[in-house]
Amino acid sequence: MAVILVADDDGHIREVVRFALEKDGHRVVEAADGVAALRACAEHPIDLVVLDIVMPELDGIGVCRKLRERGAMPILFLSSRDEELDRILGLEMGADDYVTKPFSPRELAARVKALLRRASAPPEATDQPLRRGDLVLDLQRHTCHWRAREVLLTVTEFALLRSLMGHVDKVYSRAELVDHAYGLGHAITDRTIDSHVRRIRRKLADAGGDPIETVHGVGYRLRST
Predict the structure, then answer these.
(1) How do beta strands 48-52 and 75-80 pair?
(2) H or E element: which one contains 28?
């Protein structure tokens, strides 16, 4: 059972999400605005946040930004169909996934399950970090370093980078990256993958490296360094 924060100013939406998640055995904490959401995260051992973008007091983008300053807790955004720019901005700020309103409670529960599975996945059966030149991914500790500098990644970013590091110089299509990071059967757009990869590259660049290359019209690869 996970403890999940549902932050949305619409009480009906919170009720629908609560029902879907409690049906899967999770415990739900609710917040009606962004300030209450941050307070709930401070008061409860939250495992995952379902976060509306448009909220009073502090919007979802602002909440996501502050939560990312604290760590890599999985964050799933709820957004309306006409908020494409906000959805992309949310991913740029570090959200792991999003579900568009109106949404299927079953789909939302499946996305939450996938995020929790990635966040709690046991480390791979190896004591040796995955090394590709100056890039080091410690699968046991779930950490990433470029040379001596730690690079803080979200759950989804870590999974995507792990996929790219599987085979240096292999070009991964966006569809392949979706399957590796989200699992089979998830309808994730190319634009979402692009946002995640762009954020990974920015973080690596801030640490002094840029080993990921865009292969236009195909996907991405990790260059040998």
Answers:
(1) parallel
(2) strand 27-31
Query: In whole angstroms, what is the distance from residue 38 CA to residue 40 CA?
Result: 5
Q: Is the pTM value of this prediction over 0.90?
A: no
Coil/strand/helix, residue 73: coil
Alpha helices in the chain (DSSP H): 11-23, 34-43, 60-70, 84-93, 105-120, 155-164, 174-182, 190-206
Is residue 34 within 8 A of residue 77, CB to CB? The reply is no
Q: Which CATH fold would you assign to the domain 3-120?
A: Rossmann fold (3.40.50)
Q: How many CA atoms lie within 13 A of 86 on its CB side?
A: 19
Q: Dihedral, CA atoms, 40, 95, 2, 6, nearest 10 degrees?
A: 50
Domain parsing of the chain, residue ranges: 3-120, 130-222
Q: What is the pLDDT of residues 106-146, one digit of tens each?
A: 989 988 988 888 777 655 555 678 888 899 988 888 889 99
CATH fold of the domain at 130-222: Arc Repressor Mutant, subunit A (1.10.10)
Residue 127 in contact with residue 140, Cβ under 8 Å? yes
- How far apart, in Å, are the Cα atoms of 182 and each of 133, 137, 144, 157? 26, 19, 20, 11
CA–CA separation, 43 vs 179, rounded Å? 35
